[in-house]
Amino acid sequence: MSDNLYAYGVTPDDGDIELDVTGVEGADHVYTVSHGPLAAVVSDIGDMEPERTDENVRAHDDVLRAVMVDAERTVVPMQFGMVFKGKRPLKNILRTGRPTFSRSLSDIEGTMELGVKFVADEDAHYDREEMGQVVDDRLEPVSVGTIVNDLFSDRLVVNRSYLVEREEREAFDEAVTELDEEYDDLTLQYTGPWAPYNFVDIAIEAQ
C-alpha cells in the first residue's frame, strides 16, 4: 500500500472523524492525521499527481462538505491535488503553518460558503449594481461575509459568495427563496454548501 496521503483540508483536532463518503481516486477510507491542536483530513492515494477529472473534483468537495455538515467541523480547505509523501511532511506543514491555520479556523469557525447567482432571461434587463445591492441587503443580515465574483456572462446579473454560520443556514435559505420568488425573469443558481475557499488565503505546497 502507498504511504502517499491526499489532503482535503485542516480542521481542529477534536477527535477522530468517521465519514461515510468516497474520496479522491475512489478512496473508501477518509481519516485524520493530527499534530498538536490541528488535524488534516486525508485519504490514501497511489498517484502523487491525481488527475483532475470531474469525478475527482466532486469527491474532493464531497469530503469537505461531509466534514462541515456531517461531522459539524470547521475546515480550512486545501486546493485540489495536494499529496504528501507520508505523515511526516504533512505533520511538518501542520506544525509550521499552525499560527496561520489556527487564525483562519478562528475566522471561519462554524461557517460554510454558499454561492448565489441570478441569470436574466434573454429579454430582461437589470442594472447589475442595483440588483447586487438588493441581493446584499437581503442576504448580508443572515451571513457574516460576502465576496463579489466576476460577472462572466452578459446575462449574469449577480454572482456572490456568502459566508454563512451553520445556525443561520435555514434563515439564509429562506431569504434566497424569497428573492427567487420575487423575480420571475431571473433564474437562481444556488450552490453549496462549499468549504470557504473564498474566505481563506493560505498557500500550501505539497511535499
Automatic annotation (TrEMBL):
Keywords: Gas vesicle. Coiled coil: none annotated. One of its GO terms (cellular component) is gas vesicle. It is found in: Gas vesicle. It comes from the Archaea. Belongs to the gas vesicle GvpF/GvpL family. This is GvpL/GvpF family gas vesicle protein. It comes from Halomarina salina.
